[in-house]
Amino acid sequence: MTIDEVALAAYLESAWPGFKGPVKAEKFAGGQSNPTFLLTHAGGKAVLRKKPPGLLLKSAHAVDREYRVMKALGPTGFPVPKMHVLCEDDAILGTSFFVMEYVEGRILWDPALPDADVAERAAIYDAMNAALAQLHTVDIDKAGLSDFGRPGNYFARQLSRWTDQYRASETEVIEDMNSLIAWLEKALPADDGRASLVHGDFRIDNMIFSPTEPRLLAVLDWELSTIGHPLADLSYQCMQWRLPNAGAFRGLAGIDRQASGIPTEEAYVARYAARTGIGDIPHWTFYLAFSFFRLAAILQGVLKRALSGNASNPERAMKMRENVPVLARMALEVIAKDGK
User: Fold this and answer.
1) What CA–CA distance (Å, rounded) separates 156 from 161?
2) CA–CA distance, 267 with 276 (Å, rounded to integer)
3) N or C: which end of the chain has fewer CB within 10 A?
4) Is residue 312 part of a domain?
5) pLDDT per residue over 298-315, tens digit each?
6) What is the largest CA-CA distance in the chain?
7) Where does the record place the Aminoglycoside phosphotransferase domain (predicted)?
8) Domain final residue pick, 101, 128, 143
9) Which of 18, 70, 38, 106 is nearest to 221 (CA)?
């Protein structure tokens, strides 16, 4: 996938004060949703993130929301890149896009952190925990995000949304997904009134850490952010404790927590609870099962785009065909093991 560098340079010179062309755009290899490019220009480096081409599912690939939430979070002190410009004119590059600061640092693709020592692993996980607690205590009104989503009944609305998204991108009947959806609908807990800004895809490889220390510099990929229930983010991240560290998944199942320095799921949840003051967490099994379901629905959408020729990374996207039923089965195993 390439973009028109001449058209981009002309636009940025008019929309980004101080920018001077020419510009070279090189696509990052990772990413399944919104294609992302490293921009090299006279003033240094930047990052461009755009919607993919083709027919898209409703409300998906919302680069405008990504731009807005990161721009709002910057002044709060939460670690995000600086936003430069948002372009919603499809005539420039074919789809809307935004340009943000390039943050120099490490993206840690493997949550097991094989290249870190015990102390650094513990510090990295604590930095993530602190950032999640910080995000969930952001004053939404002061940040100018009071209309960024609808508070209340978050899981009911999300279950409906992702069921619809899954059905719209369904390519074959997966009985475990049908069973999982039916269980989630029956086990849906009553709304407890909690609402906060949520990231929606809070995991270690959506973050940039300092090159030399376990300090979190930036949280990326805010496409799924909204006003929602904070435990959705927490359970989604803790899902990685259950996923295998093999094949297409980058999880922590089978990793010796004590020897590695990585906290147990229970310890991580307890630290978050202490930082946010939320107390006990009922319905944890539901939250975990929902997280597996939601990820499966997202990956089904990636597969559908691959089959339609619109995937950012087609070869990797096609592998999602086998991962969707695996996630559904794992969710049902969580339900069977952890309670009804």
Assistant:
1) 9
2) 14
3) C
4) yes
5) 889 888 877 777 655 666
6) 59
7) 25-251
8) 101
9) 70
Give backbone dihedrals phi and psi of 211, rounded to 5 degrees, phi first: -65, -20
146-162 residue pLDDT tens:
999 988 899 999 999 99
Tell me, yes or no, whether 138 and 178 share the same domain: yes
34 located within any domain? yes
ω before 22 within 30° of 0 (cis)? yes
What is the band of 321 on the pLDDT scale with cuts at 50, 70, 90?
A: confident
Which domain covers residue 57, as residue numbers?
A: 5-101
User: Does the pLDDT of residue 101 top 70, yes or no?
Assistant: yes
Domain boundary among 101, 131, 164: 101
* Cβ neighbours, 10 Å, residue 162: 21
3-class secondary structure, 111: coil
Tally of domains within the chain? 2
What 3-state DSSP class applies to 48?
strand
Please provide the DSSP assignment of 269-326 as one string. Answer: HHHHHHHHT----TTHHHHHHHHHHHHHHHHHHHHHHHHHT--SSHHHHHTHHHHHHH
